[in-house]
Prior knowledge:
By secondary structure, this protein is α/β, with parallel strands linked by helices. Helices cover 35% and strands 22% of the residues. It contains four helices and five strands. The longest helix has 12 residues, at 35-46.
Amino acid sequence: IRVERILAENKIRAAYIIYPPFLEKDLTTGKLSGLCVDVAEEMAASIGISIEWVEEVFFGSASAGFDSDRYDMVVANFWPNGRRARMAD
């Protein structure tokens, strides 16, 4: 159902985790930047959709927004250790 909505709206709602230098937010403009942002934007563009950056989340609570349908994906550099990769994939 989520995929159908994303494709129908041509938009994916993304939460993000600030983790410099991979993902940063300009406090004046609110603009996001960094490798994670560039990769996510390029991936979305390659299938013809846009990203709506909806909210900042944190490593410990990132999965909660999926249950309440606040966002469709989390953009972050998640793999500072192997245990976290195993849990988040």
